[in-house]
Amino acid sequence: MESPCILVCSIDDKTGYCFGCGRTRDEIGLWTSYTGLERRTIMSELPARMENMERKPRRETRRTRMIREREGG
């Protein structure tokens, strides 16, 4: 099942979106019960949500670490 989760689970108090993936708590909790179309619809909205967040996660994400390790850093 496709998921935008990058294992940075921290909710922005101002927007209600996760700093890691951009989903709301409800969306995260209900993710496995959504249809493929519902998940794709939510995922299409995530980039815009992430752009509007004031701060980014402080810790290195799994995705960032994997890229860094792949590049030999």
Describe this structure in words.
The protein is mainly alpha-helical and 73 residues long. It has one domain (7-73). Helix content is 42%, strand content 0%. The chain has 3 helices and no strands. It has helices at 25-30, 36-51, 62-70. The longest helix is centred in the middle third of the chain and has 16 residues, at 36-51. The termini are far apart. The model has no long low-confidence stretch (mean pLDDT 87).
- Give the count of helical stretches: 3
Silhouette? globular
Strand content: under 5%
Largest sheet: none
Number of domains: 1
**Average pLDDT rating:** 87
Poorly predicted regions are none
Class by alpha and beta content: mainly alpha
N- to C-terminal distance: 30 Å
Radius of gyration: 13 Å
Determine the fraction of residues in helical runs and give it as a percent range. Answer: 40-55%
Structure summary, number of beta strands:
0
Indicate the topology:
Blueprint: H1 25-30, H2 36-51, H3 62-70
Task: Give me a quick take on this structure.
The protein is an all-alpha fold and 73 residues long. It is built from three helices and no strands.
